[in-house]
């Protein structure tokens, strides 16, 4: 009896709403297409629009499928009715690329549009001409920018799913009564949730995991009273009405006051524009100004309630409060595999990195704190310092030192083929190979590593190697194998792509050695690696590639042209290549230990800066390497 009532309770709260939401979802899609008595063909404008859409998407699948003149003859995912396109459903296809803002202008009968679970990027499209749209699902892609204000005017829209993207800015004033399903969670949206009947009618899960979103129905209260800039302009309209009334009542005196206020705001706006320009130049992704919830700060400062955590500082000295972080202006640096990463600028001008951790193992507060303490206790000049961490029911944060000079991925690949490219010389690459080797050696040898919970690093890749203002090389995201859920680790961490994991389902320190070999190959070849750019179609499994390259004697094609011209470095490059080949060995036992790697990489002489700048950096490359010189056998 007891068990039965438990099950009843469970189904009441979880199973029934789950099925109800699936049924609602299906109902909306079926209803949207119910009049679609399918016939062959579509207008020429629509066909051209679909072909233009296909051109922007990098998908060989669509290239094959979308060719003929008839809508139903191989146009995968396209539904037509009465010679008009009424539905485009391209889900789970791993499609990349951007969709133009006006891509759907000519599809004016479109009712259902879904691109869910792909890798599309760029800004959301303009749907102002798609007045029949009832179902829109762009979830789980990489869309950025604001939510298109054109969606507010779609009075037939019933279902809107934009979750799991990188959308920023305020939520537009949706209030159409047709809307039955809404999910905006897991984005970078900010500001108060607009006070419309419709938006307030959804529960907080529609808005979850938007760090800077506040106000009901979310659980984060807003402290600021002035409405955030929005896309529909509604607050501005009511603001104008209010201002007009005040002007009428108070006359010239108030007008002068408003002018003064306007002058001040304008000045602030100009300041913001200048700041934004500077940020764009630094290739910042976006910036969101936020203010804190004073209530949250108060609660935190007063010791907090039960479910509110405490910011734990690694060195025991609280350098700032959680409230300071919440108050800071935050710039999103990207959506990593384990959560979003922000650069937060504290009021005193200091920058710190805040990682919102997701997909963790089901750890209790104590377990998380213990794990993080162990991870953070690993200190080495080549490891990015962890400053603090935080655990609450709904939020797990990792605060790291901000490393100013970017990541290795950008140093190797950034600005290629443009005048902005800053050459990444051999000496700098060798310094990276040394720094990373030392960091891994430390992680593998430190007393903490004996517990076996913290090793391997598991996710060594070029975006996790940072370079500071003194050109010091710092490895970050160490220890994640101990806190990230196993299923997610297997899917997303690079060590789990190693040959041994594929055969024996186990990773070890030697899997890090294999990752190191691949990273060194990225340094030497300048090629995109699946390690760091897994979804890029030009990315290569460099460990496999190097074995083929050496076997098939592609002697002249291995090294990055940018360093080929540095003739005095040829010997060092070959030594490093031989080391990388050994690290990439399919059999873990044949790979060297990291301490051996450190010894070998340190024996390679770093050229001095003067001789390096004298050498030919023109990029012609020295193609005089002989086949013998490329032998993978170590030359010691
Ligand atoms: N401490 C830091 N200082 C400066 N930049 C950082 C720091 N930590 C991360 N970054 C940068 O922020 C961006 C996002 O990092 P994040 O770790 O979330 O994702 P990732 O490295 O791309 O992937 P993954 O989640 O698999 O590690 C990357 O460009 C990374 O180089």
UniProtKB/TrEMBL annotation:
Residues 627-636 have a biased composition (Polar residues). It is found in: Membrane. Residues 296-306, 590-603 have a biased composition (Basic and acidic residues). One of its GO terms (molecular function) is ATP binding. Residues 327-604 form the Protein kinase domain. InterPro entries: Kinase-like_dom_sf, Leu-rich_rpt, LRR_dom_sf, PRK1-6/SRF4-like, Prot_kinase_dom, Protein_kinase_ATP_BS. GO terms for cellular component: plasma membrane. Keywords: ATP-binding, Leucine-rich repeat, Membrane, Nucleotide-binding, Repeat, Transmembrane, Transmembrane helix. Residues 280-306, 590-636 are annotated as: Disordered. ATP binds at residue 355. The chain crosses the membrane at residues 240-263. This is Protein kinase domain-containing protein.
């Amino acid at each position: 009896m007891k068990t039965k009532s438990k099950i009843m309770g469970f189904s009441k709260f979880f199973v029934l709403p789950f099925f109800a939401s699936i049924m609602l979802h299906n109902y909306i899609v079926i209803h949207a297409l119910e009049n679609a008595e399918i016939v062959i063909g579509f207008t020429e404008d629509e066909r051209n629009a679909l072909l233009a859409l296909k051109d922007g998407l990098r998908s060989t699948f669509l290239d094959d499928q979308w060719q003929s003149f008839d809508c139903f003859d191989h146009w995968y995912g396209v539904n037509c009715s009465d010679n008009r396109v009424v539905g485009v459903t391209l889900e789970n296809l791993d499609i990349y690329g951007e969709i133009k803002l006006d891509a759907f202008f000519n599809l004016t009968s479109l009712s259902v549009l879904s691109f869910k679970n792909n890798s599309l990027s760029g800004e959301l499209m303009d749907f102002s001409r798609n007045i029949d749209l009832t179902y829109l699902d762009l979830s789980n892609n990489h869309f950025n920018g604001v939510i298109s204000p054109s969606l507010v005017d779609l009075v037939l829209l019933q279902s809107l799913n934009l979750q799991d993207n990188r959308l920023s800015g305020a939520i537009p004033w949706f209030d159409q009564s047709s809307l039955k399903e809404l999910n905006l969670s897991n984005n970078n949206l900010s500001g108060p949730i607009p006070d419309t009947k419709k938006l307030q009618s959804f529960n907080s899960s529609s808005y979850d995991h938007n760090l800077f979103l506040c106000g009901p129905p979310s659980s984060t209260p807003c402290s600021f009273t002035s409405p955030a800039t929005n896309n529909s302009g509604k607050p501005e309209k009511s603001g104008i009405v209010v201002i007009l009334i005040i002007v009428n009542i108070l006359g010239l005196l108030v007008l002068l006051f408003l002018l003064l206020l306007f002058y001040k705001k304008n000045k602030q706006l100009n300041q913001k524009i200048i700041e934004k320009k500077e940020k764009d130049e630094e290739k910042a992704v976006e910036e969101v100004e936020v203010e804190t919830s004073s209530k949250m700060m108060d609660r935190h400062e007063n010791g907090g309630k039960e479910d509110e955590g405490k910011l734990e500082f690694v060195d025991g000295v609280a350098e700032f409060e959680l409230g300071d972080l919440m108050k800071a202006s935050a710039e999103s640096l990207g959506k990593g595999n384990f959560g979003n990463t922000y650069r937060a600028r504290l009021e005193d001008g200091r920058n710190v990195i805040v990682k919102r951790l997701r997909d963790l193992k089901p750890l209790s507060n104590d377990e998380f704190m213990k794990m993080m303490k162990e991870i953070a206790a690993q200190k080495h000049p080549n490891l990015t310092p962890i400053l603090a961490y935080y655990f609450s029911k709904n939020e797990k944060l990792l605060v790291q030192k901000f490393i100013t000079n970017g990541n290795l991925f950008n140093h190797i690949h950034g600005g290629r083929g443009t005048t902005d490219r800053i050459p990444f010389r051999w000496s700098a690459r060798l310094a990276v190979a040394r720094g990373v080797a030392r960091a891994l050696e430390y992680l593998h040898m430190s007393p903490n590593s004996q517990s076996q919970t913290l090793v391997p690093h598991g996710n060594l890749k070029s975006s996790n190697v940072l370079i500071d203002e003194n050109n010091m090389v710092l490895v970050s995201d160490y220890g994640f194998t101990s806190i990230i859920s196993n299923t997610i680790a297997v899917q997303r961490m690079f060590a789990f792509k190693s040959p041994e994991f594929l055969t024996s389902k186990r990773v070890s320190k030697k899997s890090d050695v294999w990752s190191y070999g691949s990273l060194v190959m990225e340094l030497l070849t300048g090629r995109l690696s699946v390690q760091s750019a897994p979804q890029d179609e030009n990315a290569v499994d460099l460990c496999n590639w190097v074995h083929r390259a050496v076997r098939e004697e592609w002697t002249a094609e291995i090294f990055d042209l940018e360093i080929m011209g540095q003739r005095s470095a040829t010997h060092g490059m070959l030594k490093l290549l031989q080391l990388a080949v050994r690290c990439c060995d399919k059999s873990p036992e044949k790979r060297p230990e990291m301490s051996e790697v450190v010894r070998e990489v340190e024996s390679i002489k770093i050229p001095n800066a003067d001789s390096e700048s004298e050498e030919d950096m023109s990029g012609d490359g020295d193609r005089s390497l002989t086949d013998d010189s490329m032998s993978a056998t170590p030359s010691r």
